[in-house]
Known about the structure:
The complex is a heterodimer of chains A (344) and B (227). Chain A is of the alpha+beta class and 344 residues long.
Amino acid sequence: MNIGWKEIKKNKSRFLILGSIVFLVSLLTMIISGLANGLSQDNAALIKDLPEGHFYMSEDAEETYNLSRIDTDVQNEIMNKHPDAVALSIQMGFLNDQDDKQQSVAFVTSTNSDLFEQVNKGEVIVDRSLKEKGIKTGDRLTNNQLRDELVIKGFVEQKKFSHAPVAYINREDYKKMYNVEQMQLVFIPGEDSAQSFTGLQSYSNKDFLSTIPSYNAEQMSLTMIVSFLIVISGMLFAIFFYMMNIQKIGLYGILKAIGIKTSRLFKMIWTQMFFITIIALTLSISLSHVFNLIAPEGMPFHLTIETTTQLSIIFLVVGFIGATLSGLQIRKIEPLRAIQQGED
Amino acid sequence: MTIFTLDEVEKTFTNGEIEENILKGISLSLKEGEITALVGTSGSGKSTLLTIAAGLQPASNGEVLFDGNNLTTMSDEQVRKVRAKEFGFVFQFAHLVPFLTVEEQLMLMLEVSGSTLSKKEQKNEVDQVLDVIGMEHRKNAYPSSLSGGEKQRVAVARAIIHKPKVLFADEPTASLDSKRSKDMMELIRYLTKKMNITTLMVTHDEEMLSYVDRILQMSDGMVLENE
Lengths: 344, 227
Ligand SMILES: Nc1ncnc2c1ncn2[C@@H]1O[C@H](COP(=O)(O)OP(=O)(O)OP(=O)(O)O)[C@@H](O)[C@H]1O
Ligand SMILES: [Mg+2]
């Protein structure tokens, strides 16, 4: 007989309340995770979409990519050794559209590589978000540092840097705009460990992301909220079952006296915990994915099945730990106690 | 035939510095199918003796022998199995499981005792016992909707449904009025005689003694037998 289930059936409202709270907490967690993920995508999709590898910037740049200058000889040496390496530069700037409206963008230029869009001199490929601002293929845009116009050659999906849409331009144009010969960064894709080059410091993709101003601050505060919510959900279970157990000490004692195993009482709590959590999670997963679909265009919300699966597993594990901790007191209950106690 | 023997059982509780000798070497034996009453003043050690005999707490010294087994040397798990299979319990309060129906309480007991009957046979068994205690019509009721007497009857049914060898009852009538107490004793007597269950019962109530076969008088941790 599944006594855990029988108890839920008899005390529906009690378990409904716990279930609703777990549902709300897990929904909030998923929404915030979606937001964290969306923001990080909005902040650095350009970097996040790259394969695993290592970035190199000059040591004296002190982790600030736009102060970095890669020595041309060193760059050539690296490129010779690693044919798939790519040198790139990123600069925040503005494009003026045909109505002379300024659009903030991140200019990106690179040596020949599949990882970054390649354009001819006088052309530009921009992030799709500029399409919504009314910019079309063939439009002629201007930049204050550049005498010639840049023609929109096309759009790319979700390429952002530092919350600005990326604009891929040719190296010649980049050099004219910013008056620099050297590139800022070298990226070598591949799982191999970082290599050392004179005067350069290496960064994994993740480390490089955290050098982007605001990226870390943003992610850290959201991650913190998410972890708090997860801890709270664990405590919810611990406290709920603790209260229920306190009320049932007499009952547990009598059940032990008539010969029920302690492990069966634990299984009862676990059944209840899993039952509630799975229903609550099913609801919050569906709802947050619906939210993912209907979230307003401009809202940086991005929730993947992978994230929800991970969170669900964490919720189940944390709930299990909470319920088990509160159940530890059951082990200490002696059958005798119950008999000496009064009526239930 | 003797089924249950206590041999020089002692129990000492330590309250801080003070050692209190609650049971001072008790020897007694219970005969199969007999109802034995333990009487005595409050604090004389009746409940302590009953719970030691039932394997709910260990003795400090001495032996508890049941059906050829020595409970005092068994592991906790072994004692639990004996309790589940061979013993039945009734206490002052019914202590029913609040979220199980009357029928489910009894089904659970059958399951805990390791019954080998099929589900259908178990249900038949439950129906029969409910018929005997006159609670068939309430088999789908939850304890909260039962009267005190009804709850106690279900508790008795739960104590004997798995056909235990020994029934332990600690003041089973203390929460009932005089009329219901007598009904309860009649029921216990009827069931234990029918099923040949050996009964050890603690009671305060002189009136209940007419339903028992043998009376053991306890005083200050000792048994002074009388008839
Ligand atoms: N766990 C314990 N720790 C310390 N002392 C205990 C413990 N259990 C019982 N005692 C003491 O043992 C003595 C006998 O208790 P017991 O409950 O056996 O008495 P009783 O004869 O059943 O009394 P009553 O008729 O009131 O139920 C009492 O003085 C009690 O305080
Ligand atoms: Mg007592």
